[in-house]
Amino acid sequence: MDEVWKLSLVTGWLPAALTILGVAAFIALIAIPPYPRRWAIIAPVVIVSAGVIVYAGSWAVTNVAKLFTDEIPTENLLWSWVALAGLGLAVGRLPRLRWWGWIAAALAAILVFIGAGAQINRFYGQYPTLGTALGVTRSKTVELSSVDKPATGVVTPPPGGFLADVWQPPATMPTKGTVSKVTIPGTRSGFKARSAYVYLPPAYQVTAHRPLLPVLVLVAGQPGQPESWLISGQLVDKLDAFAAAHKGLAPVVVIPDDLGSSFANPLCLDSKLGNAQTYLAKDVPDWINSELQVAQGRDNWTFAGFSHGGTCALQMGVNAPDVYGSFIDISGQSEPTLGSREKTIDGAFGGDAAAFAKVNPLDVMKTRQFPDTAAVIVGGTSDGTYLPQAKEVYAACKAAGMDVTYMEIDGGHDWRVWGGGLEQNLPWLARQTHLSSQ
Q1: Same domain, yes or no: 127 and 154
Q2: 192 and 328: one domain?
Q3: Which of 133, 156, 173 is the last residue of a domain?
């Protein structure tokens, strides 16, 4: 069954087949008799009404409820329209059908939903495989206390060298890393975060002579959850593969919650929306240092994220450079936003534009240099919204004296870029944090 669970839902025959079945079911709901009375009128009304509902719902979610800072892509609105219209057509057929017809209509509606969902999933890559979508291949978690045992000795990099140069893994070292679900309290910030996740690479689990590994703090997008990196980003597979090629060495990864809830957006700042910056710059490092045995110093700590999380990485690199000496900004925005600068200043700072400017990275970098900070800025080649912003951020970081690298990856605002942006920069991270030269 392993090969079945590994079937891609982003490329290949499976998403295409699901979409074909969905389209066929949609056509069947329209065209196959028996028809209800006045079906020639009812069917178009249902289809048009579904489109109106989807459009109105999208507008309300974006502009009234403000659950998203960006417009929902047209392609995804169209597939949402198809899904809702399929449901409406199935319901509209029920009065003239017998019990077996009800079952057929329900199955057709389900196929339409699955086909439309397959296309929306292809756009974002939220569920890369069949196994992740069904929840059967997601990373298993273990209690942190069962794997984070005290070490009797430690190994550190030689002066000017890399940890991999002096580290020799014992034969008893595990071959895979572990994932633990933990609570990181907002002791200083008062921020009420959801559960976080911790990845400990194989080398960390060695207690005789534990290598002091660098730290990577990862955050997700908005709306989102920390687990997105594990499910959609397939983070464990990427880190285990890196560790396997580097004698079990990889960064210790902590994935905190920077939102508070899936649709909240405290902007990774300290504002009336919450003290997210203090949480990420103080509470999370405090917890890491108290609970984990890791390398110390800003040169060994990296912050990274995608989309909203990429913006957050930029913010941590600029507003907390004493903690994070490097950052990876993947598909981030040019500034923290609630949809526009005006909305952001009003919603987070009560209209105080000066307060926003004091913490807005591009404003800060106009008056301050960061010669000791390293960064990677990543954009998707077909990301029409965020790629220009990535270029703007790169130029600002370069002007501020950072050791900054710019990278474009094939894809849009999706997991091809987000997951690839991290995976392709793990060697860069290893060099920056004295883990490995390769």
Answers
A1: no
A2: yes
A3: 133
Asked whether residue 176 is assigned to any structural domain, the reply reads yes
Q: What's the Cα-to-Cα distance from 82 to each of 51, 86, 333, rounded to whole Å?
A: 8, 6, 31
Domain final position from 133, 168, 193? 133
Q: Do 199 and 308 fall within a single domain?
A: yes
CA gap 232, 245 in Å, rounded: 23
Q: Which residue has the tokens 């709306």?
A: 223
Q: At 334, list the tokens.
A: 């040019």
CA 193 vs CA 84, 142, 174, 272, 310: distances in Å: 34, 20, 31, 16, 19
29 and 167 both lie in a single domain = no
Could you tell me if 383 and 418 are in contact, meaning their C-beta atoms sit under 8 angstroms apart?
A: no
| Structural domain includes residue 437 | no
Cα angle 94, 100, 106 (rounded to 5 degrees) comes to 55
Q: How many structural domains compose the chain?
A: 2
Sequence-distant contacts of 157-164: CB under 8 A, at least 24 apart: 157/434, 157/435, 161/434, 162/430, 162/431, 162/434, 162/435, 162/436, 162/437, 163/211, 163/212, 163/213, 163/249, 163/434, 163/435, 163/436, 164/246, 164/247, 164/249, 164/430, 164/435, 164/436, 164/437, 164/438
Judge if 124 and 146 occupy the same domain: no
Asked whether residue 304 falls in the same domain as residue 185, the answer is yes
The residue written with tokens 């965020």 in the block is 386
164-190 pLDDT, tens digit each: 999 999 999 999 999 999 999 999 999
Q: Which two tokens stand for residue 36?
A: 């209800």
State the Cα–Cα distance between residues 348 and 270, nearest whole angstrom: 9
- To 10 degrees, the CA torsion angle through 295, 296, 299, 302? 70
Which structural domain range is residue 62 located in? Answer: 2-133
| pLDDT tens column, 106-136 | 999 999 999 999 999 998 888 999 988 888 8
Query: Six-digit token pair at 3?
Result: 């090969």
Is 266 found in the same domain as 346?
yes
Residues 182 and 244 in one domain: yes
What's the predicted TM-score (pTM) here? 0.92
- Supply 53's token pair: 């509902």
Do the bridges between strand 301-306 and strand 326-330 make them parallel or antiparallel, or are there none, so unpaired? parallel
The C-alpha atoms of residue 211 and residue 98 are separated, in whole angstroms, by 69
Report yes or no: 331 and 390 within 8 Å, Cβ to Cβ: yes
